[in-house]
Design brief:
A hairpin with a 7-residue loop joins strand 2 (45-47) and strand 3. This protein has helices at 16-21, 59-71, 99-110, 141-158, 172-182, 203-208, 229-241, 255-265, 275-286, 292-305, 316-321, and strands at residues 32-38, 45-47, 55-57, 76-81, 115-120, 134-135, 138-139, 162-165, 189-196, 245-249, 269-272, 310-312. With 327 residues, the chain is of the alpha/beta class. It has a single domain (27-326), classed as Aldolase class I (TIM Barrel, Alpha-Beta Barrel), CATH 3.20.20. An 8-stranded parallel barrel has the order 1-4-5-8-9-10-11-12, surrounded by 7 helices. Bound molecules: ligand PBG. Ligand PBG binds at residues 119, 121, 123, 131, 166, 202, 205-206, 211, 218, 274-275. Ligand PBG is lined by residues 119, 121, 123, 131, 166, 202, 205-206, 211, 218, 274-275.
């Protein structure tokens, strides 16, 4: 490399057009997945206080949001369900007429080309708010697997293109893959929350999904934030069990993990920019402490630069609306 003054790094930073020419990373609407929270009823649109711009919606309103997303060019939505009633085993999670099952069918009808992904987990459906069934005060891994498979099957039967297990039970990807294949859903893909960390950044989501654990916490199944090599093993296992896309979650505090997963596997990697990461920027912006639009673009770009191919983000629609202005 030549040295200063022959080399001046600032030469290519002078104008917006020059910067565009040498830009290495671009976020496209094509990369984004929009999460939606579906609740019972009709005509319901209940804003989530801790997540400005996000609402709990009934099926009819979720269809409107999904159709709008499709029109904006967003390729996929990720559905979460908040059921009418909760019980010990989360049986609403696999009910044929559950909110997610109805939303999947209605969205596929209104916007057939939109990829519909469903979150598969028990925490939104259990009275205790844990991601699996409780035996003797702890989440029982193996007893949970069958319920997860049942939920995934009901989503596939409703027309889901992809199921996304987010529970962090051991062996669930394999069990779900076998169940889908056995029931004629070999083409339904699995997006596994492979490296999901026990994070402080899920707080606002638990308000949106009404899924906060009623006792204890999720550290017995979600990963220790300190562990990067373990994340690689989690990802490897899910791939061996049949995951088509692997996810790292949250995003910003784990960009090193995103990078390592991409390098190690070459698989499609998804990063989830989670509720708390989104809420933090929204709150600061509301105070006038930072520029939300610039922060959004910088954050999404950094996730992409770290190696993510797909990004789950509550900003998907805002980004799509402003995507033409790249600077
Ligand atoms: C668990 C689940 C969680 C999120 C999605 N699925 C978190 C949790 O409560 O452990 C978090 C998403 C977010 O914070 O945006 N089923």
């Amino acid at each position: 490399m030549p040295k200063y003054p022959a080399l001046r790094m600032r030469r290519l930073r002078r104008t917006a057009a020059l910067r565009r020419l040498v830009r290495e990373t671009r976020v496209s609407v094509d990369d984004l997945i929009l999460p939606l929270f579906v609740v019972p009823g009709s005509g319901v649109r209940r804003p989530v206080a801790s997540m400005p711009g996000v609402a709990q919606t009934s099926v009819d309103e979720a269809v409107r949001d999904a159709a709008e997303a499709a029109e904006l060019g967003i390729p996929a939505v990720l559905l979460f369900g908040v059921p009418e009633s909760k019980d010990e085993v989360g049986s609403e999670g696999y009910a044929e007429d559950g909110v997610v099952q109805r939303a999947v069918a209605a969205i596929k009808k209104a916007a057939p080309d939109l990829v519909v992904i469903t979150d598969v987990c028990l925490c939104e459906y259990t009275s205790h708010g844990h991601c699996g069934v409780i035996r003797d005060g702890v989440v029982d891994n193996d007893a949970t697997l069958e319920l997860l498979a049942r939920q995934a099957l009901s989503h596939a039967a409703a027309g889901a293109d992809m199921v996304a297990p987010s529970d962090m039970m051991d062996g669930r990807v394999g069990v779900i893959r076998s169940a889908l294949d056995a029931e004629g859903f070999a083409d339904v893909a699995i997006l596994s929350y492979a490296a999901k960390f026990a994070s402080a950044f899920y707080g606002p989501f638990r308000e949106a999904a009404e899924s906060a654990p009623q006792f204890g916490d999720r550290r017995g199944y979600q990963m220790d934030p300190a562990n990067g090599l373990e994340a690689l093993r989690e990802v490897q296992l899910d791939i061996e069990e049949g995951a088509d896309i692997v996810m790292v979650k949250p995003a910003l505090a784990y960009l090193d993990v995103v990078w390592r997963v991409k390098e190690a596997t070459g698989y499609p990697v998804c990063a989830y920019h989670v509720s708390g990461e989104y809420a933090a920027v929204k709150a600061a912006a509301a105070q006038g402490w930072l520029d939300e639009d610039r922060a959004m673009k910088e954050i999404l770009t950094s996730i992409k630069r770290a190696g993510a191919d797909l990004i789950v983000t509550y900003w998907a629609r805002e980004f799509a609306r402003g995507a033409a202005s790249s600077d």
